[in-house]
Specification:
This protein is of the alpha/beta class and 369 residues long. It is built from ten helices and eleven strands. The chain binds 5'-O-[(R)-(carboxyoxy)(hydroxy)phosphoryl]adenosine (KG4) and zinc ion. The site of zinc ion has 6 residues, from helix 4.
Length: 369
């Protein structure tokens, strides 16, 4: 693909799950500047059903996407003709939800005569950590410095409601999946266990707050797949184990033990994620990876951030976690990945795109006809 010299100004759109998000980002001298960003969450809608109904998610996206895009364009001080491209998440995610973002992107690209940069949702998460800068706390609306060229090869753990995946990057936009979940994603397990404990959807962050008051050693839940010999994960058995524990506890004592169950479950997930990531580092010889990245909604979890920090310290590898405000779904991360995709010439015409619910990060363009 051709290399692009011009520094791009990009409108980025994200609708893969239950957040409608848009952002305007601009490449500056070895940095990405966020000119404007907004997220509209559908959590209140999905709380009523205790989970996401894809068609309901799509309907919500339709309702808010246009004013959201108008808002970021206005706040970003950009007219359509001043953009270099429109970036949009094309997968993985819920197909009806993805379609809303793609339709908006295609329509605007057609009207403004601009190319589209298709972005894989997972590469967006990875770039939110890659651009976070070691140890620097960056606000969500900010300047993000490019990583050093010697950041590669690197290892990234993306943990979200839909995915748990260990990815190796040999260079920008070059991904190899080393392991992923065979069933539930880590965030999904958090949400399901939170529900068992009577917390409202999506319970991940509330479960972690409850866990602060609990004793992680009071229950010894299993650490799934630690001896599987590969880098895959599985969280559905652990969730079932917690379910039997909850069912086996009478309701009077359950109230007193909820925090202990939450702490025990969180500890089991964190330890599993940390030990598997450590195995991935060891397998390649610890000198091999220059950087470890942690991203995705579950990366907001303080116990996980702490566990990964301790392990990376022992393994002597620098760790960069996505800023807490950018762990959950947002469009800044899509804009961040899009700037690098632009630099490599990943541009397409509005006619040549479709969404792909199961799009692999290894081939972000596999859905182009
Ligand atoms: O990345 P994300 O916003 O959406 C997907 O791409 O799936 O991740 C959302 C997930 C939800 O499952 C949510 O419960 C979980 O991230 N999550 C957390 C925390 N904050 C969000 N899980 C554990 N601890 C948290 N603090
Ligand atoms: Zn996500």
């Amino acid at each position: 693909m051709e290399q692009k010299a011009e520094r791009p100004v990009v409108l980025a759109i994200e609708t893969s799950c239950d957040e409608t998000a848009a952002a305007v980002v601009e490449e500056k001298e070895k940095a990405i500047s966020v000119l404007a960003a907004a997220v509209a969450s559908q959590v209140d809608v999905h709380r009523l059903t205790g989970g996401i109904v894809p068609e309901a998610a799509a309907r919500e996206h339709v309702g808010v996407i246009r004013p959201l895009i108008e808002k970021v364009m206005r706040h970003g001080g950009k007219k359509g003709r001043e953009l270099s491209a429109v970036a949009v998440t094309v997968g993985p995610g819920l197909a009806p939800a993805l379609s809303v973002g793609l339709t908006a992107a295609r329509t605007l690209a057609f009207i403004w005569k601009k190319p589209i940069i298709p972005v894989n949702h997972l590469e967006g998460h990875v770039y939110s950590a890659l651009l976070a800068g070691a140890g620097k706390a960056q606000s969500p609306i900010s300047n993000f410095q490019f990583p050093n060229d010697d950041a590669f090869p690197l290892l990234a753990l993306v943990v979200s409601g839909g995915h748990t995946v260990l990815v190796e990057m040999a260079g920008h936009l070059q991904y190899k999946v080393l392991g992923s979940t065979r069933d539930d994603a880590a965030g999904e397990a958090f949400d399901k266990v939170a529900r068992l404990l009577g917390l409202p959807y999506p319970g991940g962050s509330q479960l972690s707050q409850l866990a602060r008051r609990g004793d992680p050693r009071a229950f010894s839940f299993s650490r799934p797949m630690l001896r599987s010999g590969d880098l895959d994960f599985s969280f559905s058995g652990l969730k079932t184990e917690v379910m039997y524990t909850v069912r086996g506890t009478d309701s009077a004592s359950l109230k007193a033990r909820r925090a202990d169950i939450a702490a025990g479950f969180q500890q089991a997930v964190v330890e599993t994620l940390v030990r598997k990531t450590e195995s991935a580092l060891r397998r390649s010889g610890k000198k091999r990876y220059r950087l470890l990245l942690l991203a995705g909604g579950v990366a907001a979890n303080e116990a996980l951030r702490g566990g990964m920090k301790a392990m990376s310290g022992e393994m002597n590898i620098p760790l960069q976690s996505a800023p807490p405000a950018l762990c959950g779904d947002n469009a800044i991360m899509i804009g961040q990945a899009a700037v690098f995709a632009w630099r490599q010439g990943r541009l397409t015409d509005w006619r040549r795109l479709d969404v792909s619910a199961r799009l692999s990060i290894e081939n972000p363009l596999s859905n182009l006809s």
